[in-house]
Amino acid sequence: MDLGVKMQGAEPVSTMKVSESEGKLEGLATAVTPNKNSSSSSCGGGISSSSSSSSRGGSAKGWQYSDHMENVYGYLMKYTNLVTGWQYRFFVLNNEAGLLEYFVNEQSRNQKPRGTLQLAGAVISPSDEDSHTFTVNAASGEQYKLRATDAKERQHWVSRLQICTQHHTEAIGKMMSHAEGQQRDLIRRIECLPASGHLSSLDQDLLMLKATSMATMNCLNDCFHILQLQHASHQKGSLPSGTTIEWLEPKIPLSNHYKNGADQPFATEQSKPVAVAEEQCVAESGLLAREPEEINADDEVEDTCDNKEDDLGAVEEQRSVILHLLSQLKLGMDLTRVVLPTFILEKRSLLEMYADFMSHPDLFIAITNGATAEDRMIRFVEYYLTSFHEGRKGAIAKKPYNPIIGETFHCSWRMPKSEIASSVISSSSTQAITNHAPVSEEALSQVGSDCYTVRFVAEQVSHHPPVSGFYAECAERKMCVNAHVWTKSKFLGMSIGVTMVGEGVLSLLEHGEEYTFSLPCAYARSILTVPWVELGGKVSVNCVKTGYSASITFHTKPFYGGKLHRVTGEVKHNITNTVVCRVQGEWNSVLEFTYSNGETKYVDLTKLSVTKKRVRPLEKQDPFESRRLWKNVTDSLRESEIDKATEHKRTLEERQRTEERHRTETGTPWKTKYFIKEGDGWVYHKPLWKIIPTTQPAE
Questions:
Q1: What gap in Å lies between CA 119 and CA 273, rounded to an integer?
Q2: Fewest C-beta in 10 Å: which of 70, 123, 133, 287?
Q3: 100-109, 197-206, 364-373, 630-639: which has the minimum mean pLDDT?
Q4: Number of C-alpha atoms within 13 angstroms, CB side, residue 676?
């Protein structure tokens, strides 16, 4: 069969031969060289085509072309850049490989291509500007802007490119389906193995294979889904501004129990014997008063509890459980409703972890002592960056208890006044409080003492979504901080990411200033070996009244090289766009602050003194206070009795589910104890700004 194509403004194209029996090109045509004398277009060129069909002859070998798939080659104009503009290049459409390649000219065709685009997932778009131009947008993001001699030649290239693109894109889907079938067969074969023996279903290498194969298929599926969305969006027009592509959620329920071989869904829990004390707590929980409780400071004593998390034994022993868990999680899956195995838990609640961020009360109190707005913003940034180190317990990444709805945590710190950095007269705060009667008698009685007191209260105000509210104040210094945080955790393959959604507001009532701040994301890395924590993302601190702001970036470690736990930031005066302080270093090691006057200060966090918090003994705590609520779980973890800890934990979670069902059935809304919902946030019911009038300093 002979095929010939002659393009306007080009020399005749020589004839090509195609074998009908094999569907393959037997002879290649001599490519067209653009006719430089043609007046029809400055972009003159020509194309040659070779088409084949397996349906016209006998059995075809290897690749099967459709009736309209052609290998096309010829000269096109390619837009390079603003300097060189449009240039002639020799293009080859390789249907079998699904590639669009180009060369400097036809003579260099046997050499390595100057450029190559994968057409699977690509979008071919004729331009609206004229009838000659079109673009090839590869799934990788690379783009070729091309120009043919005329509309007919453009249509020929566009149609052949679109056919090739569709064919190879569909081929990916078929390969994905085939791979999924093989992966399912692999999982089935592993799970059909006996539970014991030389080769068992619990073999760690097989569990590792099961986990990694599942994670790989999930990742490929999500990537293919994004590719399809991108392809569809280009065909229908660009996505609206602000649109994001979300990961797909799993379509099947996951396993609930992470002892290998179990099949129960997450919604089901097997009831087990529980301690008498917990049964009584379950019966009484619905009757507990939800009215705010005034904590007597005299009941609090210095904390002697030391729950270090430096033991890797449990993680190593339970590695097979982790593998079984990973094999059933989907990349990007929200872990909010996933019941994680008990052995990965810290021996404290998330509410207490927030309290541990306040372990440097001297730096917190010193913020309001700044003589200028600039000084106060810099002091806040110094305090903010030093708070995360103590919030983590040990090097290993373990997860604090998920607070039960209605759970609370109370504590306080006492700080000698002589240890607070000051740049204003020490009597200013005393004078301010004395002049305003609404301060409580307890706060007034402490004004003349040698210590400042910082009080802290946290409450789990919502279960779905999981939202915590916490509040801290130093009444003597007329300062308080109120925050609400929604923790969103996602499975990221071999790590877990936690986004801290929400914000905090620090109020300095002496100065009439409010500092709004956000929190970084946290990541548990290397969860199959020795898990560790890093922080990541950009956070901001802003004071509208003074015009000062801070931008802080927590850098995650790059794949190759780079330092761990790196943080950088700067404090800026927005009105003048002047940077007044820069900071760099590691958030868990040494921080370097460089000020606008050229001075530099180093802060070694490992040597900063930590003030122990003061808490009430368990017998004086409310049944829903964190330490009393989780006592049995904590004691069991401390004794490495994982099964016992799991049993106690399950009891608490089942009680929460039972009470939630009861509230749903009766239409009874949950009533919080210390925090009130205002807009999208939660505010402490009795903040200082409602008790102490805000002072407006003289200009």
A1: 61
A2: 287
A3: 197-206
A4: 7
**What's the per-residue H, E or C state across 223-276?**
HHHHHHHHHHHHHHCCCCCCCCCCCCCCCCCCECCCCCCCCCECCCCCCCCCCH
* Sequence letter at residue 497: G
Distance CA 378, CA 581 (A): 7
Question: Which residue, chain included where needed, has tokens 């370097």?
Answer: 592
Contacts of 215-223 with C-beta under 8 Å, sequence gap 24+, read 215/326, 215/327, 215/329, 215/331, 215/493, 215/494, 217/179, 217/180, 217/183, 218/330, 218/331, 219/331, 219/493, 220/176, 220/179, 221/176, 221/180, 221/248, 222/247, 222/248, 222/331, 222/332
Measured between alpha carbons, how far is 73 from 46 in angstroms, rounded to an integer?
A: 8
Indicate the length of the chain as a whole number. Answer: 699
This prediction has a pTM of: 0.58
β-bridge pairing 345-349 and 399-401: parallel
Q: pLDDT tens digits for 257-285? A: 333 333 333 333 333 444 434 444 444 44
Angle at 566 between CA 560 and CA 571, to 5 degrees: 140
468 has a pLDDT exceeding 80: yes
DSSP 622: -
Query: How many other CB atoms are there within 10 angstroms of residue 406's CB atom?
Result: 21
Measure the CA angle with vertex 107, ends 106 and 110; round to 5°.
95
Chain centroid to CA 271: 34
What pLDDT is recorded for position 336? 61
Q: Is the Cα dihedral 324, 328, 334, 340 positive or negative?
A: negative
Is the bond leading into 341 cis (omega within 30 degrees of zero)?
A: no
Specify the DSSP element, H or E, that contains 684: strand 681-684
